[in-house]
Design goal:
CATH topology of the largest domain: Butyryl-CoA Dehydrogenase, subunit A, domain 3
Mean pLDDT: 96
Low-confidence stretches: none
Strand order of the largest sheet: 1-4-5-8
Shape: globular
Order of helices and strands: HHHHHHEEEEEEEEHEEHHHH
Number of helices: 11
CATH architecture of the largest domain: Up-down Bundle
CATH superfamily of the largest domain: Butyryl-CoA Dehydrogenase, subunit A, domain 3
Number of strands: 10
Bound molecules: flavin-adenine dinucleotide
Structural class: alpha+beta
Radius of gyration: 21 Å
CATH class of the largest domain: Mainly Alpha
Strand content: 5-15%
Distance between the termini: 37 Å
Length: about 400
């Protein structure tokens, strides 16, 4: 039984459907997860195989239904940020790979949910919800990470119809495992951000090579997607030609909040572990928990996690219920929750002493798992700039709804 309460489901941000989802997730974590994770740290191949098992199992259990809308087999009429955030917090507290498996089904399919037409949605989303189709989101490039609009992959319209894609995408989660990629490329309708389009690309399309892997500190499927004369039909174009940047940013507006939720789950697990340890560890004739410096540290950790939860679910609720743009709220939630979780986990490692850095201990794993969250889907510095710019703008034209 965890020592720390999870996010309070009695908060007004949630309804019965959210509470039922968490109950279902916790049952799956208790009954299915331990067997599915077995051997996942033995090699990179084992890690890829584990993610595939996790997606299939989450799909069979109906837990991926939170990633797609009801018309395509999902839980709710439209994409619900709070459901995905609660799922990520709950799964991340138990396992980074389980969180990753669900998160990528959401991130890789969200451009289709939010911007695809009926035929595109029907082709992909039921398979995503059932865990039959694995998805990926291919935006970043070697020379265009934070500066997305600098991307150089090209989409060339063919005279006989369809598009030809060329270029290299990098840091692509699920590369080599995905059945389906959303690929962003420069189609040239206008300079910069206004000349980018988004395409649905089947992994088996000739000219798409996702075989090169990138090993990282907390292993998960990650690699390059190389496009070389990769041809797709007109029906692969998502939204309008030139509308790709809007699709990418619209997707991130929903997903940044859920990255904050995953960080919250990692942080809560670190606090769980730290509390057990400080009560059990004896030194100088007392327990570690008896020292005021420990109590201060635990106090700071608890405050940081609850503040993260409030920001994450405020952003989710604002998006789902008020149905307005939440660029500022989502950026704040991701920025604060990922930075806070990094500090909370570091404090937990410190409280464990030498045991905290032993390979395979939970806090050591969390220490590696949290790091990338401060970089992807908007590095912390980029998010600070977004929040700063929006706050300055709002001071000139105050919004009614935030
Ligand atoms: C584990 C992992 C998984 C990922 N998964 C995906 C995925 O599935 N799909 C995808 O498309 N991409 C993915 N990414 C890529 C990720 O989104 C990029 O790494 C991120 O956008 C940063 O780009 P970059 O790595 O090129 O760093 P750069 O853009 O080179 O930035 C380096 C650093 O510069 C600083 N910086 C950036 N901008 C500013 C600024 N304006 N002012 C001051 N400082 C600044 C920040 O500290 C930043 O970390 C993933 C990355 C990682 C690490």
């Amino acid at each position: 039984m965890p020592a720390v309460a999870p996010t309070n489901l009695a908060w007004p941000f949630f309804d019965e459907g959210h509470r039922a989802l968490v109950v279902q997730l916790e049952a799956w974590i208790a009954d299915e997860l331990p067997t599915l994770l077995h051997g996942s740290e033995d090699s990179l191949d084992a890690c890829y195989a584990c993610v595939q098992r996790l997606v299939r199992s989450l799909g069979r259990a109906g837990l991926l239904r939170c990633c797609v809308p009801q018309a395509q087999g999902g839980l709710r009429e439209s994409f619900d940020v709070r459901s995905v955030a609660l799922a990520r917090e709950t799964l991340a507290r138990a396992s980074g790979l389980a969180d990753f498996a669900l998160a990528m089904q959401g991130l890789g399919s969200a451009p289709v949910t939010l911007f695809g037409n009926a035929a595109q949605q029907a082709a992909l989303l039921p398979g995503v919800a059932e865990g039959r189709l694995i998805t990926a989101f291919a935006l970043s490039e070697p020379d265009a990470g934070s500066d997305v609009a600098a991307m150089s992959a090209t989409a060339t319209r063919l005279p006989a119809g369809g598009w030809r894609l060329d270029g290299v995408k990098t840091w692509i989660s699920n590369a080599g495992l995905a059945d389906h990629y959303v690929v962003f490329a420069r189609s040239g309708e206008a300079p910069g951000a206004r000349g980018i389009s988004a395409f649905m690309v089947d992994a088996r399309t000739p000219g798409l090579d996702a075989s090169e892997r990138i090993p990282v500190i907390a292993p998960h499927p990650l690699g390059l997607v190389k496009l070389n004369d990769c041809r797709v039909g007109d029906d692969a174009l998502l939204g309008e030609a030139g509308g790709g940047f809007k699709i990418a940013m619209g997707t991130l507006d929903s997903f940044r909040t859920t990255v904050g939720a995953a960080a919250l789950g990692f942080g809560r697990r670190a606090l769980d572990e730290a509390l057990q340890r400080v009560h059990a560890r004896r030194m100088f004739g007392k327990t570690l928990a008896d020292f005021q410096m420990t109590q201060q540290k635990i106090g700071q950790m608890a405050v940081a996690l609850d503040a993260s939860a409030l920001m994450v679910y405020r952003a989710g609720w604002t998006k789902d219920v008020q149905r307005v743009r939440v660029t500022r709220e989502a950026s704040m939630a991701k920025l604060y929750a990922t930075e806070a979780a990094q500090k909370v986990i570091d404090d937990a490692v410190q409280l464990f002493g030498g045991l905290g850095v032993v390979q395979g201990s939970v806090v050591e794993r969390l220490y590696r798992e949290i790091r990338a969250l401060r970089i992807y889907e908007g590095a912390s510095e980029v998010l600070e700039l977004i929040v700063g710019a929006r706050t300055l703008q709002d001071a000139l034209t105050p919004r009614q709804n935030a």
